[in-house]
Design brief:
Length: about 190
């Protein structure tokens, strides 16, 4: 059975073009949704995927109507493949029920994996360069070393942690973290 999925991002947009194309392609059932593709919770898409059975084919007008990203699209189509369900994108002429369509889709998957690997490598290289320049990254510390020593002295002098936090205008958790550091150091 051919099942269609049509989506537009806002309620002011119209799915009619997609609906017509899916009907002309022979879809017996079409799930229609008016929600941003960036959202994870797309109830009609979830219902559509749940309704698919072995040997069914899911049709979309265009690839970007189905997945939030290439990675998400690959996850969905691989999940369909695991269920024995085919996938067709009308605009891009991708049909995973054919060997050529499967090849094209797997090439997309390989390119996406390659891109993620390149991004990971660039991030690692950038962090390494930053470390060599003395930058650690992450959130800046709330108290510098001198302030930490003063906070420790205040605590050792009997000040409450909450009073120390108010004095430095930081959270109590910051003070706990500083004092925890000296407790470990003293052990």
């Amino acid at each position: 059975m051919k099942i269609g999925y049509a989506r537009v991002s806002t309620s002011s947009q119209d799915t009619q073009l997609q609906m017509d194309a899916l009907e002309n392609a022979g879809c017996e059932v079409i799930y229609e949704e008016k929600v941003s593709g960036a959202r994870k919770d797309r109830s009609e898409l979830e219902q559509c995927i749940k309704s698919l059975r072995k040997d069914d084919v899911l049709l979309v007008w265009k690839l970007d109507r189905l997945g939030r990203s290439l990675q998400h699209l690959l996850e969905i189509v691989n999940g369909l493949e695991d269920k024995g369900v085919g996938f067709v994108s009308l605009t891009e002429s991708i049909d995973t029920t054919t060997s050529t369509g499967k090849l094209i889709f797997h090439i997309f998957g390989s390119l996406a994996e390659f891109e993620r690997s390149l991004i990971r490598d660039r991030v690692k290289a950038g962090l390494e360069v930053a470390r060599k320049k003395g930058r650690i990254g992450g959130r800046p510390t709330a108290l510098d070393e001198k302030q930490k020593q003063i906070a420790i002295a205040m605590f050792n002098g009997g000040a409450l942690k909450s009073d120390i936090a108010k004095h430095f205008k930081v959270s109590r958790q910051t003070v706990y973290t500083v004092l925890k550091g000296i407790e470990k150091h003293n052990q």
